[in-house]
């Protein structure tokens, strides 16, 4: 008699948790950054995955049943966003069917959405800045919000109440109506995410993460100042960069800690601008690592497990980033040498990765198997390792993805 879904769920959860704790589980856990691959695999377009809830659930269910990863990701919170983005007239992103072809993934539109002279406004009240300055720049439908008075000035019946009149103009009413419509579509997304989480549990698959958060410097650089602006700011106004990252730290921490409320205390943290080539080791230790380290420590203290994805290459950072609580975090690497990472970090954090996307796209199943064996023999030795792709597998060959999963399950057995 086969195992029940509940038994498979507990087995996979234990396997992953043992690896996180730097123990040897029954075998090496295996998962992947699925991206839009399940859509392609099921024969639907990226555009359909962003707009059709039933097709999303069917496609990602097929992926789980056919490949049986040890953890499942949720396609709703980062992919089923088309209708929301349409209503808000999002300027910060191009997506399938909206600026891109029907089978294209996202394309971020880089920009300085916070000007260099606006640091003081942001630092004084980030929420006010987001509402009245940032949103009008990135959401066309909310441009009227730039005419709002500061909401922190509306305090009581004789202190600022008259400022509510600004909500009554025709263009403001249209903006508020768009926000309400976007809220309705967001509720559909949330309901889809909850339905998917329940579906995964029914099938016996734990979730990879409950929420996503970011390094404070990345939030400043990715969304507000832009890459160019943030890099120049490290030279021209370093004290403002440090103040901004400190201001963002509790916001990013509270966002991550909300994973516990969702019943999945694993927090995904993709990293962007702290990599080799973006900043020097000294800049990394000054502007990037201090608040990221405190974010990781705060999540751990709050009962969460940070799943930190070091995109690109961070070879020069390995000795620095090991200064976190032992056996409480996962570091996934995209291009960093996994064998050197094992030498430096293997006694401190669980390592995750990093079968190259290039190999999954252009290699053969035998080449994938050989690469996975080397990772298992070297990085998996003694435990503390989760097999994974180097990045999202949108363009991977299905036979190569299958080879990665099958060889890990057959060859990655401990004891």
Task: Tell me what the structure shows.
Helices cover 51% and strands 9% of the residues. The mean pLDDT is 96. Helix 9 (216-236) packs antiparallel against helix 10 and helix 15 (365-378) runs parallel beside helix 16 (398-411). The protein contains 16 helices and nine strands. By secondary structure, the protein is an alpha/beta fold. The longest helix has 34 residues, at 170-203. Strand 5, helix 11 (281-301) and strand 6 (305-310) form a beta-alpha-beta unit. The chain has a single domain (5-80, 185-411), classed as TIM Barrel (Alpha-Beta Barrel), CATH 3.20.20. The protein has a six-stranded parallel beta sheet with strand order 4-5-6-7-8-9. It has a three-stranded mixed beta sheet with strand order 2-1-3.
The value of Rg in angstroms is 22 Å
H-E string: HHHHHEEEHHHEHHEHEHEHEHHEH
Number of strands: 9
Alpha-beta content class: alpha/beta
- Tally of distinct domains: 1
Main sheet summary: 6 strands, parallel
- Give the strand order of the largest sheet, numbering strands 1, 2, ... along the chain: 4-5-6-7-8-9
Put simply, the count of helices is 16
The shape, in one word, is: globular
Shape-level CATH architecture: Alpha-Beta Barrel
Helix-residue proportion = 40-55%
Give the C-level CATH assignment: Alpha Beta
Indicate the CATH topology: TIM Barrel
- Uncertain segments: none
> What is the rounded distance between the termini?
25 Å
- How much of the polypeptide forms β-strand, as a percent range? 5-15%
Mean pLDDT: 96
